[in-house]
Amino acid sequence: MTRIAILVVAAGCGASGEPGTDGPPSDANGCRISIAISTQPNPPVAGPSTMVRANALLDNVPGVPTYSWAVSFANQPVTFTTEPPDNAAIDFTAPDAGVYHVTLDVAATVACDPALPADVNVPPPGANGADFRVRVTPPATATPPAQDRSIHISGGAPYSMGSVALDDGALRNGTVLAPGGGVPAYLRFSSVGTTTALIETFADMFGQYNVRLLGSAYDVVVIPAASGVAPQKFAGWLPGSALQLTTPATITGTVKDPTGALLAGAKVQLQIDGVPTTIGTTAANGTFSLLGHPAAGSVVEVEVAPPATSGLPRLVASSTFDLSVPMTINYASSVSVVNVAGVHVRRGGSPVPNAKVTVFGTMAGAGLVNSASANAAGQVRIAATANASGDLPAGTLAPRGVLSGVVDATGGLGVGAFDTTGAIPQAIDTNGPVGASSVVKDPSLAPIAGAVVDATPSGALAAAGGAVVHATTAANGSYALSLASGGHYALRIHDPSGRGAPLSLADVVAATVPSSSVLGKALQISGYILDGTSPIQDASVQILCNACGGIDASRPIAEIATGMSGGFSLAVPDPGTM
After folding, report:
1. pLDDT (tens digit per residue) in 30-46
2. Chain-centre distance of CA 354, in angstroms?
């Protein structure tokens, strides 16, 4: 019979089924008690012949121990048999898919703490799998630092991480060193292979920092606040190693406007595999110089912010540029700028004096980087304040294009069309907030009370700083939103009680909010977050996509805070079964 031993909830352990190296924590008497799980078959699949064995593992337990076992499934007791002669192991069958909960208490000459429970995940036959990253961020009052765990779940049944004992890590002292000595800096520590910040800190004016970290590797981005050095990434960095900034390369280039004239006062910055360079500002002859760390084959993102009064769009391009030669960044000759001063700003047909206005838009083919090597897109973000008559002030310039105007006035934001491709419009017309209502239902089409609805601004509305709109469903599953007229949103619906899987809709306006939203089948992921054997309350638990890139890698699929017992339960889309 093939068995796999699983040490459950040892100090330094991950989720149930992820063995640690240090063993379970000792209690005040030096006792160590834990549970090892083995299954047949391995991995287990629900069925009448599937067997689970739980073994007691004891260390420094004096005297002749007496074992008290209990097994439950869906809060109901499960029959088990004990292994003679001392009952230090039990066997039970797992006919149904789900989580089997095993507990153990041991009586001995000296009282020992009971073993932390073991949860055994038994999927149904033909279950599909899915990988997730679980990010746990304890509150500031707790000792352990934020940390990520990778889990693989099977569809068709709940999944338990069991009792997750976080690693306390250790306070790490270090110095950010430049060629001339220590420098102040911002430090971002991420799990290896990810880009979102897991832990952040600052080095002081001497480059010294003190932060609690695990003993495992991190990807570290250092952004120094000193001249002569540039942000730098240290991949697979181990705590205790030096953060020695190396001498950066000088990256140069020239920026020209749509007429081919050299453009002064533009700010240029690159991102090299996600690591920023310093910012360069073009001189009177259109040239710029910045510092960075080029790497062959790296994806380079280029952003050019023109002078605020130019009316030109920002240029954004991405490619594997050769940074060893000077860059040439040219606005396309098709880009032209017009004077929009005097355009009326109206809400419901009436002038809006002193309104804040953001002109927003995107333009394809707005420029070229390195001649024909990359086509740069244009991003229009022009801010202005209407005068006392409700008109755009003198000197307001904008590019020709299909644009939008976001008006911030009494009652909130409104978005109106502002097409400057032909004759200049006389006005930017917006209206007040627009109501939208809907009903949220579970997979069986029953209404869900207490579901949370978030409408996050996108496009022009996001560029103007629009706020997220929140709502909670009533007893009949209904909710109402007050959205900016003409505004676009990303709509997300999630049920904290897990009666349905989170639902996201990418591009919604008030008129396209669905009259009814049916959540997909959910799978519950649960567990307990511990510091040693003590529960951690108010820890943030986020479920993240394990294989996503870009902004999707940082957007939680689900998130919740742990309760007083350290427990959490949240829902993710069920991968299902074949």
Report:
1. 788 889 999 999 999 99
2. 38
